[in-house]
Amino acid sequence: MEILISLIKILVVMLVLLTCVAYLVLVERRVSAFIQNRIGPNRVGYKGLLQPVADVLKLFIKEDIVPKLANKPLHRLAPIIAIVVSLSTIAVVPFGDKINLFGYEIKLQIASVNIGILYVLALTGLGVYGIAIAGWASNNKYSLLGGLRSCAQIISYELSMGISIIGVILVTSTLQLDKIVEFQHGWRWLILLQPIGFITFFVAIFAETNRLPFDLPEAEPELVGGYHTEYTGLKFGLFFLAEYANMITGSAIVVTLYLGGWQFPYLQSSGLPEFWTSIIQVGTFAAKVGAVLLFMVIIRWTVPRFRYDQLMDLGWKFMLPLSIANVIVTAFIIYLFE
Amino acid sequence: MSIDTIVFFILAATSIISAILVITRRSPIISVVYLVFNFIILAIIYLTLHAQFIAVIQVIVYAGAIMVLFLFVVMLLNLGKEEMLTEKITYKKRIAIGLAVVMSVQIIIGITTSFGEHPNQLSPLATQIGTVEHIGKVLFTQYLLPFEIASILLLAAIIGAVVLAKKRIG
Questions:
Q1: Alpha-carbon distance B139 to B141, whole Å?
Q2: In the predicted model, is pLDDT for residue A268 greater than 80?
């Protein structure tokens, strides 16, 4: 029974995640159109709501072109790595507390592992391979440069990301994401206790997901399409999917660590029936993730891209020292007050 | 056989096969990819032994950090034609092969003779030893001195790397 419940949870979460990815693309296109005073896709279905279906169908029936001199097995492997890594991160994110369904108490998280946050860090570290291998295997100078840039960027910002997480661990004294959310009951959101850590972590998430202003790996004017220049059809679709899935898991982790996760202040003491409390908690989590995603989309269409040296300077000379200072100050304060 | 044993044998077989593929592939990049795969399988074996911390560190440090460096070096070195990488068997290698065979026979004998002696199950303590809390506590109390010495060693290595890199430019 346990295994069956886990399987159903995995299936539901994957379906929801993939649907969200499809509609996130639509939201992105509509918001960008709104910002640039265009109309955007509004023809397929009511107000363009079926546009994602059309897009996916188009990617399915496109011809799959592999360059003649590409390393074929690796060229095929790279999008698989990218998608596996980006989809498995969601496994440790808690999207609610517990829910009673058909007499079973179900924990609303796929896996509550002891190493929680470290699992997320490990997977982001593996995400580099998809991009690096894609860049190299395409046998194209633009792809290679895009792949190398992306790796340098991800590795640099991973450091400040990891160190900002240490601040969270110091305050909550646990690595489990569900325990971190439980710590943030009421208004004890970690963004209030760790404001600098929140900023460094959020910026690092932007860099990890290759979003503007950090989208140098695929800076179109200089690198054509970056590491996925030589990918077409469904393989390109997989990279695209991985990128947007990364965005969703990234903002889910931001919400879990700093914005209180599924906590809705004073909900537990309001005396609502248990079932509706759980539903509201899941809704709260979804609303928070949606708000963060919308913020990421708006940033993309309002801030221009960094130059490569500016990006590295920001990462190593500003973000990293700032996050280390944050850890030291947090540790001192905790030491003094306990 | 319990499920644990079956899972272990599947994982062990995959890790050995991927390790063999690392040394038999001609293309160095493919070798690196198999090595990463091997490290990840090892991490899963650690997980089945309840050593969660060591498993995740294996992925973060080896598979995530060190192997990326390997991949970069191999990608950018431009190793040229793959035929150049084939090696000839010299007398040194013959001796090495002989020694390897002797050693593997020793290992096999060692394992097969001691197979029945130890019960094939984890002690209840094992589930606690591998957790982050336990490792942290032991590392910062009982083994504080070795831990600090190791960190000084790493710091020296980092400074050494910076000094070497600066010399080249100057």
A1: 6
A2: no
Count CA within 13 A, CB hemisphere, residue A281.
28
Range of the domain at A239: 2-337
Which CATH entry fits the domain spanning B3-130: 1.20.120.1200, 1.10.1660.10, 1.10.10.10, 1.10.3720.10? Answer: 1.20.120.1200
- Kindly write down the DSSP assignment for every residue of A168-198, as one continuous string: HHHHH----HHHHHHHT-TT--HHHH-HHHH
Q: Is the pLDDT at B135 greater than 70, yes or no?
A: yes
Please report the residues numbered 42 through 61 in chain B whose beta carbons come closer than 8 angstroms to any beta carbon of chain A.
52-53, 55-57, 59-60
Chain A positions in Cβ-Cβ contact with residue B131 (cut-off 8 Å): 114
If pLDDT is split at 50, 70 and 90, which confidence band does B85 have?
A: low
Residue B64 and residue A125: Cβ atoms within 8 Å?
yes
Which among A190, A111, A134, A200 has a CA at the least distance from the CA of A162? A200
**In this structure, are residues A284 and A263 in contact, taking their beta carbons and an 8 Å threshold?**
yes
Test mutation, A133, A159, A180, chain B, max B CBs within 10 A:
A133
Instruction: Give the 3-state secondary structure of residue A46.
Output: helix
Residues A224 and A228: their CA atoms lie apart, in Å, by 9
Q: What b/e string do you get for B37-61 counting C-beta neighbours within 10 Å, with b at 16 or more?
A: bbbbbbbbbbbebebbbebbbbbbe
Q: How far is B52 from chain A (nearest CA, A)?
A: 7
Q: Which residue of A has its CA nearest to B58?
A: A122
pLDDT tens column, A189-239: 888 888 898 999 999 888 888 777 777 666 666 667 777 777 887 888 888
Cβ distance of A132 and B68 shorter than 8 Å: yes
CA distances from residue A148 to A145, A156, A315, B64 in whole angstroms, order as listed:
5, 12, 16, 15
What pLDDT does A149 receive?
A: 82
Number of domains, chain A: 1
Pairing of strands A104-107, A98-101: antiparallel
| Joined tokens for residue B35 | 């090595």
Q: Which of A76, A113, A136 to mutate to test the interface with B (most CBs of B within 10 A)?
A: A136
Could you report the predicted ipTM of this complex, rounded to two decimals? 0.81
